[in-house]
């Protein structure tokens, strides 16, 4: 059995996974291993254990040390964030906390990070009877997503961002992303730049948008927040029975950042993420309503002023990243066929165009929230 789906993905054999899984199984035994999801970064396996205290299920992940070279800092951030979330929800009288907040599972030595040879693993308690969304959501799901990510931010608003480590430096530094794209295009090591002059020109013409955000952050006008930094719809679990949003997942990039990037990525993801499903204002209206109901009172005037531009910024950034990977020979993002990263880049740039066309509607929507 192999798991791992992308360019540069880590891969593990079943013997190693079973050996590591036993360290998280407590007094139990490993009953089954099932590959889970199609994540682009880590390899994930559902491990079901049997023991004296009944069955137990964990999500075991072999971690990508190329993307996250400081794994202890990643684990420490996650432990701090989940502990804070759990305490806040418990104080509010929330129930089923084991399904509302991710919970790291400890290995036999009490550690959350296990190394096996050159590889590194961690595990979470599996959240059962829950699913993530793939494809276009309903308006109800979009509203639930806005509410859930807004609540995530609101609950962490009093956790100083300085207590977390920046595990990927410059993750949402759009100016740096654009500069890297220009350098790769000029080098043209794979001979692909000649076919993407239109895309490169399109991105260059919108570089001022990245500068506006960078200047606001550098001046301190935008506060530094604890941010998720990867608020795709599939990083949220929904209850199988009710469809209610349950738990924000994939916390590896939760670190100091801006709430604008989180909102922007979430809104952008309604347009289909890596695909091109089109942009639907009713979905965005539902998301905005849910989001602002949770976090609207905590936003600063500067954050509110720039919020309508955030989805466009993130779509431009992601389009640039896909294009850079295409020009670099598809080294980062998984591809299933030649040219897929170029297709993804073009899809995101179409989202930028659509957001520009609907800018007035978007600003009115924000002003009413």
Overview of this protein structure:
With 369 residues, the protein is α+β, with helices and mostly antiparallel strands. Helix content is 45%, strand content 13%. It is built from 13 helices and 10 strands. It has helices at 14-24, 71-91, 97-100, 139-155, 174-187, 197-204, 207-218, 259-269, 281-295, 301-306, 310-327, 340-357, 359-368; strands at residues 29-35, 43-50, 56-62, 114-116, 119-125, 130-132, 225-227, 236-239, 245-248, 255-257. A 5-stranded antiparallel beta sheet has the order 1-2-3-5-4, covered by helices on one side. Helix 5 packs parallel to helix 11 and helix 8 packs across helix 11 (310-327). The chain is globular and about 60 Å long. The termini are far apart.
TL;DR of this structure?
This protein has 369 residues and is of the alpha+beta class.
């Amino acid at each position: 059995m192999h798991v791992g789906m992308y360019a540069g993905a880590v891969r593990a054999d079943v013997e190693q996974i079973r050996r590591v899984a036993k360290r998280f199984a407590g007094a139990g035994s490993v009953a089954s291993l099932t590959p889970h999801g199609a994540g682009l970064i880590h390899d994930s396996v559902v491990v079901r254990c049997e023991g004296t205290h009944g069955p137990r299920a964990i999500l075991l992940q072999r971690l990508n040390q190329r993307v996250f070279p400081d794994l202890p800092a990643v684990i420490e951030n996650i432990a701090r964030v989940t502990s804070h979330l759990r305490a806040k929800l418990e104080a509010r009288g929330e129930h089923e906390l084991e399904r509302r907040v991710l919970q790291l599972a400890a290995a036999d030595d009490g550690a959350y990070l296990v190394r096996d040879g050159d590889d590194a693993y961690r595990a979470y308690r599996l959240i059962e009877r829950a699913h993530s969304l793939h494809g276009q959501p309903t308006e109800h799901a979009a509203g639930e997503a806005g509410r859930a990510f807004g609540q995530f931010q609101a609950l962490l608003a009093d956790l100083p961002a300085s207590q977390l480590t920046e595990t990927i430096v410059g993750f949402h530094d759009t100016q740096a992303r654009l500069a890297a794209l220009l350098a790769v295009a000029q080098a043209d090591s794979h001979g692909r730049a000649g076919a993407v002059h239109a895309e490169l020109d399109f991105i260059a013409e919108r570089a001022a948008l990245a500068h506006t955000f960078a200047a606001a952050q550098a001046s301190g006008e935008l506060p530094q927040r604890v941010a998720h930094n990867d608020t795709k719809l599939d990083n949220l679990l929904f209850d199988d029975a009710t469809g209610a949003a349950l738990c924000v997942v994939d916390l590896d990039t939760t670190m100091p950042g801006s709430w604008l990037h989180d909102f922007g990525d979430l809104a952008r993801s309604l347009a289909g993420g890596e695909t091109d499903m089109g942009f639907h204002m009713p979905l965005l209206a539902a998301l905005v309503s849910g989001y602002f109901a949770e976090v609207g009172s905590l936003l600063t005037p500067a954050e509110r002023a720039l919020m309508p531009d955030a989805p466009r910024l993130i779509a431009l950034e992601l389009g640039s990243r896909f294009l850079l990977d295409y020009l670099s020979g598809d080294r980062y993002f998984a591809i299933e066929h030649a040219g897929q990263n170029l297709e993804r880049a073009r899809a995101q740039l179409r989202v930028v165009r659509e957001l520009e066309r609907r800018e007035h509607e978007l600003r009115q929507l924000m002003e009413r929230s």
